[in-house]
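Q: what does this look like with FE2/S2 (inorganic) cluster bound?
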Amino acid sequence: MNIAPHRYRLCATSSLVEGRHLKFSIRFEGRDEECLLIRFGGKAYAYVNRCVHMPRALDCEQDLVFDSSGRYLRCSMHGIVYSPDTGTSVSTMCEGQQLRAVAVFEEGGAVGIADFRVSAVRLPAG
Ligand code: FES
């Protein structure tokens, strides 16, 4: 019996730059969601791109997900900031609430998703 989640390769390790993000469409728990793939402190992390405050994408108002310091993720709607390594809000608003983390892997020069809740991945166009 195979108990490992399907592994979806998303990009080359070199394509995921520190403090930057890439976006992918995923089927997560049966729903189509946008997924943010980021690198922070040398490690890759992935989150469903939906703020804990309201169902808005973090980059709904600006094409950025890191704040100007590069130390936090920031929702461009009302400014909640999150720890990039845990997805936890460190703002007074929604303090302690977490973005939905998606399990990632990085090996053999590639970064990808390996999460039982993900049933499909669509790579961005272009
Ligand atoms: S919708 Fe993200 S901070 Fe309000």
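Residues 8-122 form a domain with the Rieske Iron-sulfur Protein fold (CATH 2.102.10.10). The chain has a mean pLDDT of 94.
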